[in-house]
Structure prediction request, 651 residues.
Amino acid sequence: MKNQFPVKLTDDSPVDDGLQLPASLPEIRIDADLHDFSAAFLAEMSREKKHFCISIDMPMPQSLSSGDKYAYLVVCLAPDQIFAYSTDYHSKILEFLVGQGVGSHIQELLPVGHSIKSRFRGLPYVLPFGSCFDVEVAGYILNQIEGGSPSFEMLYEHAVRESYPRFAVYEGPDNSLKNASENPMELLLAQTSLQIRTMSCRGLPGIVHTACNYWKNLPGGHFFAGELLLIRSRRLQKSPWKNWCMI
Amino acid sequence: MYDIEMPLVLGLDCMERAGVLVDRMTLADIHISFEAELNRLSASIYEKVGMTFNILSPKQIGQVLFDKLQLPSGRKNSSGTYSTDSDELTRLIDEHPVVRDILNYRQISKLDSTFVLGLQKVIDPLDGRVHSSFSQVMTNTGRLSSAEPNLQNIPIRSDLGSQIRRAFIAPPGRVLLDADYSQIELRLLAHLSQDENMMNAFLHNEDIHTNTAANIFNVPKEMVQPSMRSAAKTVNFSIVYGISDFGLAQDLGVSFQEAHHYIEHYYAQYPKIRAYLDSLKKMGYDKGYVETMFGRRRVVKELTSPNRNIRNFGERAAMNTPVQGTAADIIKIAMNRVSAGLKKENLDAVLILQVHDELIVECREDQADAASVVLKHAMEGAALLRVPLIAEVSQGLSWYECKT
Prediction:
């Protein structure tokens, strides 16, 4: 089952494709073999599709203690292809992505993210991409969001015209949903939290954060699409990108 | 705009990670000298008023100055206590010698706590450097902001404040290069307004402040005194900020009529500037926003306010943003060019700091000349204007040394 999530731009013209959300959280493959990852990456690359969103997330450095291994690099190759890698794998995954042209000046694959510089401050080295697209900076350039720094939540509400979903929780012995909502994103997030509790990765530190980032990846791609349209319409960009990945 | 801001994301990441080396010993020395001066000043203050009190307490200062010493009181705060902010104390400076001491005490105390002690707390123990965080999305004009620590507000005007820059140093075998845009906002005003008189002054490398002084004081250029030039400098910079007659009178300490006279003479000398600034206000009212040369927009919603003071603020923002914002765009372009240029020339040099119109690069000592050329070229070629864009590069072993 798929949820259709209509996204609108500021001028109220609808984006041609809605936001597709899977009904449940797919399996998150943790520290999977790199050969499996590269095979999955190449398979997704070879498909004809508009969105090729790779979600790469890291907790903010201040939320980590020294030597923490829970800064998962979440790589969503497709809605049902989610990989999460602990710290030891980060450089290999990033090197692989750079090797595949992500963020290169060939301009085939653009890493997209919100507040990229801050989110990757925990990396012990400069983010290896040559280029990127930050939806926060783009929101600022477009001056869509009042008050300077456009948070992810503000960008979401601006693009989707609905309040940002909260992590609803299942409570009690029957796991009933507290504060049930008609908001599809909110329901999915709630389901995610339930799934996390029953998955094999239950109890794994940082996994809720990881799952949350997975969900953020989906609207994040839409912010990018909407912002890019506006940037082009205002002629604020010289060269278009053919593809992108979401970080 | 996209091509300015997006490459800068990763450029700023590099700059933050590089950080600036800070000499703890220098900071400690400055702290000792500041403490000694604070002790001397407090003794002097207590002696002058005949009692001890908390010099950093605005309430107690109010009681000492207005109740005990019976100085003429001015404004009161909403809480009913006397206002003792720096404007208020400056007004009283000739009324009693203790006022100057209190102002100096406050200044040194602020410098010590915010910059000397504050910087010591944020030095990374692993590399001895300070890694500030720069944000692209915090200001209305497009300027970068700096936090944790804010390295963009380290004082430069006062001699004591500028001492703090002694603590920002280059590691052994390396030097700092400091490049400053020369009068970038005035050059942009000349470019954007296309005022022939101002453009000619820059094209002929004339001193713009002396030119303005000669006009507003109605004297030949060679008769312009330093005080006249200083006043003209204030007028030149204030106009860009849409200053009123009243504001200029306060800044220069002259009468309202005199300030009005200066402004009128200024506009007579540079007639297209008034037309240009008026066009910006009109654009703000008509479209609801103003733009920089590179298309950065600032929505000026204050212009729709029924409150006149808020509308006046909006008008000043509408007049200032295209100039200040374009300067911000240009330095960002320059930063991208500097990073690319240093890399292309394979120089062991890295951009470590941006302070509005100023860039600082740390580089290997034997590559300083080559890096200086890259820096100057990148900054001066960042935009094509009707007047020259000039960047002045200096080098030194500390930030302070670069500036002296």
In short: The beta strands of chain A are 2-5, 19-22, 28-30, 73-78, 81-85, 110-113, 133-134, 170-171, 176-177, 244-246. The CA atoms of residues 143 and 150 of chain A lie 9 Å apart. Residues 1-17, 60-69 of chain A have pLDDT under 50 and may be disordered. The helical segments of chain A are 34-45, 90-99, 116-119, 135-142, 152-160, 184-198, 207-233.
